[in-house]
Amino acid sequence: MKTFETLVKLTSCLGQEIGVSPYLTITQDMINDFAKATGDHQWIHVDVEKARQFSPFKTPVAHGFLTLSLAPRLMADLFRVLSVKMGVNYGANKVRFTSVVPSGSQVRMRATLLETEEVPNHGLKIIVQCIFELEGQEKPACVAELISVLYE
Known about the structure:
Blueprint: E1 2-4, H1 7-10, E2 17-20, E3 24-25, H2 28-38, H3 43-46, H4 48-54, H5 64-69, H6 71-75, E4 79-81, E5 86-97, E6 106-119, E7 123-134, E8 142-151
Parallel strand pairs: 1-4
Antiparallel strand pairs: 2-6, 3-6, 5-8, 6-7, 7-8
């Protein structure tokens, strides 16, 4: 994990890879809990037997937005800024779900700091390219440009 004293120090990584998170196992329980939280109970996510019989993937797959929702958790493994008192999600420029995430698979996130912009009240808007990689697979599961605002 990279540690930066201040937001100014974070900006020194502009255009560079911040890091790669450890792998996280996507369990069927995680998928089921996400379905409960969002109301998306489509069988390709939650019905193990039906997925085994009818899905081309032969197993349930995670919701794309479940994969994306892991960004804050995985980002916390990559870096922190000691002077930051709070951060807020600001949105996304681009999000693409480029490959399915089968239940039981291992996902990690590779992050690159693309842009920074000072904002009022001692804040810094950052745009981070987040690439969600699956263990043993070349094609990523998700590629997203996520925007956050960090405040000192």
